[in-house]
Amino acid sequence: MALRRTPFYRVLYRPPLILGGEREPVLVTLVIAVGLVMSGFNLVSFVVAGLLWFGGIAAFRLMAKHDPHMSSVYRRQLTYRAHYAPRSRPARTE
Fold first, then answer.
1. 21 Cβ contact partners less than 8 Å away, ≥ 6 residues apart
2. Residue 58 pLDDT
3. Are 26 and 56 spatial neighbours (Cβ–Cβ below 8 Å)?
4. How many C-beta neighbours within 10 Å does residue 86 have?
5. How far, in Å, CA of 57 to CA of 67, rounded?
6. Res 51: pLDDT
7. Which are the contacts of 61, defined by CB distance < 8 A and separation ≥ 6?
8. Straight-line distance from the first to the last Cα atom of the chain, in angstroms, rounded to the nearest whole number
9. According to the model, what pLDDT value does residue 82 have?
10. Which of 79, 53, 73, 62 lies closest to 21, judged by CA?
11. Burial level of 18, CB count in 10 A (0-12/13-18/19+)?
């Protein structure tokens, strides 16, 4: 008897990335950059917003290459910080 093959579609396990980075940080950076441009509306605010946007996208792409869920894992780690020691200690046998 042959084994039944079940297709595993790529859409079911592919992380939702925008411009190669995680969705939430990319959109937050976009909102901050647009807000900076709209609030200042001068050459300096355009340059700073552009640097923030393109630098953020580059950083988020690198993060997504290592782990597509890195920001959510980091936020969860911050909430568990009080429960787990940062390193293990040897057991005392006195």
1. 56, 57, 59, 60, 61, 63, 64
2. 97
3. yes
4. 5
5. 15
6. 98
7. 19, 20, 21
8. 60
9. 77
10. 62
11. middle
Concatenated DSSP letters of 20-83? TEEHHHHHHHHHHHHHHHHHH-SHHHHHHHHHHHHHHHHHHHHHHHH-TTHHHHHHHHHHTTTT
pTM: 0.74
Q: Which amino acid is at 59?
A: A
What number of residues does the chain have? 94
Chain segment 33-90, per-residue pLDDT in tens: 999 999 999 999 999 999 999 999 999 999 999 999 999 999 998 888 777 766 766 6
Residue indicated by tokens 């790529």? 10
Tokens at residue 69, please? Answer: 């869920």
Task: In whole angstroms, give the CA distance from residue 29 to residue 35.
Answer: 10
Q: Cα separation of 81 and 77, whole Å? A: 6
